[in-house]
Every structure is written in C-alpha cells, then in structure tokens.
Amino acid sequence: MRKIISFMHISLDGFVAGLNGELDWVKIDEELFDHVGKRISKGDTALYGQVTYQMMESYWPTAAQKPTATKHDIKHSAWYRKVHKVVLSKTMENTGLPNTTIISDNLSDRINKIKQESGEDILLFGSPTATHSLMQQNLVDGYWLFVNPIILGKGIPLFVDIKEKIKLKLLTTRQFNSGVIELNYVVDKQK
After folding, report:
1. Which end of the chain has fewer CB atoms < 10 Å from its terminal CB, N or C?
2. CATH assignment of 1-13+40-143, among 3.40.430.10, 3.40.30.10, 1.10.357.140, 3.20.20.370
3. pLDDT digit string, tens, across residues 22-63
4. pTM here?
C-alpha cells in the first residue's frame, strides 16, 4: 500500500507559513534542492491543496523554458509535468487539467483508493489546510520535515486539532549547511 508523506518546511516553533501564508523565511539553496530532488524524482504522485496547486501550476509547467532557469528549475519542471497531481478542493473543477485529479468529496474513500493503486509513495507538498484535513482522518503516513532555523512566534501551525497521540518513528535526519535540519518520520501504526 502506498503511503502519504507530508513534505513541509517548518519553523522551530512549529509553523509552516506566516499568518498570511508567507514563506519568505524558508531557507532553500542548491544543497537542499539537490537532496530533495533525488527523493521526489522517484515519486509519481503529488498531492496538493488548491492554493499550493495553483501556485505550482502557475510556475512549474514552463519554468524550464525561462532564460534564467536553474538546474533545479529544469529538473523539477520536467518532473512536475509528468507526475500525477491530486488536488484537494471543494471549489475547483477538473476542466481538462493535464494529469490531474480533483478530490472534492468523500476524502477518506478517494484517498484510500489512490493509496491502493500501484506506484510510489504520494508526496503531499506544503498545503497546510489539506494536511490538516488528511491528518484528522489519519491518512498521513509520514512527515518529511525541514526545520528552518527561525522562530516565527505566530503563523499557520502544522499540527492542529489533534484528537489523539500520533506515535512517530524517526527514519533519517540530516543537517544542511544553511542550518536547516531534515527530520524524516513514519507514523508508527502499532498501538
């Protein structure tokens, strides 16, 4: 069975974005891009909330064609165009969006059906609202967190309305030159 892995940048105090969704505090450089690129290049399905999807869709399909495209832009753009995209949205309609599935209802049933399909793990990118919805239904199987060396004090938290403890097992860690620390956890389903 495929797993949903939540990929997030997070502040030391647990926020994934500023109060207005700003991410100007996230530290990203070539070392981090290369590391993340190796992992996601194996992925065949990306999961987004509507806001994150629209942000990604406005940039990545044509990012490689820009005269200022970096190595990362070229690789990620190619991956983005081929990966199957799943978008959680109650208002979007799938009107010819290439390689995209919109889920607007029956979240648990629809996600569990996708998890049963053959393929690699499903990477949930950013999308705090979508992550919260999936967490409330115990559909997130792992957390791939990049802890940034900053305390925001306020913002959009990663963990909200948690009804019961979620036991995690640490798989890997890594420290980057930027001060960002990767924490890769899987949800420990054993009670």
Report:
1. C
2. 3.40.430.10
3. 999 999 898 998 999 888 888 899 999 998 999 999 999 999
4. 0.90
